[in-house]
Specification:
Elements lengths: L6 H23 L9 E5 L4 E5 L13 E5 L4 E2 L9 H10 L5 E5 L2 H9 L5 E5 L16 E7 L5 H13 L6 E4 L4 E5 L2 H24 L2
Parallel strand pairs: 7-8
Antiparallel strand pairs: 1-2, 1-5, 2-3, 3-4, 5-9, 6-7, 8-9
Helix pairs in contact: 2-4, 3-5
Pathway: Amino-acid biosynthesis; L-methionine biosynthesis via salvage pathway; L-methionine from S-methyl-5-thio-alpha-D-ribose 1-phosphate: step 2/6
Pfam family, one: Aldolase_II
GO molecular function, one term: methylthioribulose 1-phosphate dehydratase activity
């Protein structure tokens, strides 16, 4: 455990914890965080982030269920264990300075889509009006690729795959993990919630098309 955060960080942590807990309760009510799954975070500053403590019921989060980590994913001022996937959150903050919130959920739709499209390595969204809910997209006449990465318990391996996608120059707004769920992010909680809800809807539409195809 590293040193106790200064008072200004503690104040920001309380603010971020309240926002995370509120969003988590709403997402849990949708059924997107079963069996204590999922994890959520918000950037505090360039060096620190607030993130859910591992194993907590996401429908019952309070301030005591959120902790501080540095950008290497190490606990700051706490003996609690952060989510096992903390490195995936801090990676987004390091790679995308404009990102201030990361949400990771395990809805049925996300999980099924991750399995169905795993062999293709991506879900290609094209022609859907709701693509405009994603920051930077202004028309349905666009292509939005959501990569599907293989699942592994080795977080550095997953992080390397995400880095490789970004380093190849391909846009990245969210990604799925095979048999797992989705990660998405944004400039603030409202934008990130919008991304998550839009992608949930769009993935459901793609699954319906596959199911209804003759």
């Amino acid at each position: 455990m590293s040193k106790t955060p200064p008072p200004v960080v503690s104040a920001l942590l309380a603010e971020r914890a309240d926002a995370i807990a509120e969003a988590a309760r709403e997402l849990a009510a949708f059924g997107w965080t079963p069996a204590t799954s999922s994890n959520f975070s918000m950037r505090i500053d360039d060096d620190l982030a607030a993130i859910t403590i591992s194993g907590r019921d996401k429908g019952r989060l309070g301030r005591d269920d959120i902790m501080v980590v540095d950008m290497a994913g190490k606990a700051v001022g706490s003996d609690h264990r952060p989510s096992a996937e903390t490195g995936l959150h801090t990676q987004i903050y390091r790679r995308f300075p404009e990102a201030n919130v990361v949400l990771h959920t395990h809805s049925r739709t996300q999980s099924v889509a991750s399995r169905l499209f795993a062999s293709e390595g991506r879900v290609r969204l094209e022609g859907w009006e709701l693509q405009k809910a994603i920051a930077g997209y202004t028309t349905h006449e666009s292509v939005l690729d959501i990569p599907v990465f293989p699942n592994t318990q080795q977080m550095p391996e997953l992080e390397a795959r995400v880095d490789a996608w970004i380093d190849s120059g391909k846009p990245l707004y969210a990604y799925l993990i095979d048999g797992h769920g989705i990660y998405t992010w944004g400039r603030d909680m409202a934008e990130t919630r919008r991304h998550l809800e839009a992608l949930e809807f769009l993935l459901g539409c793609e699954l319906d098309l596959r199911r209804l195809a003759p």
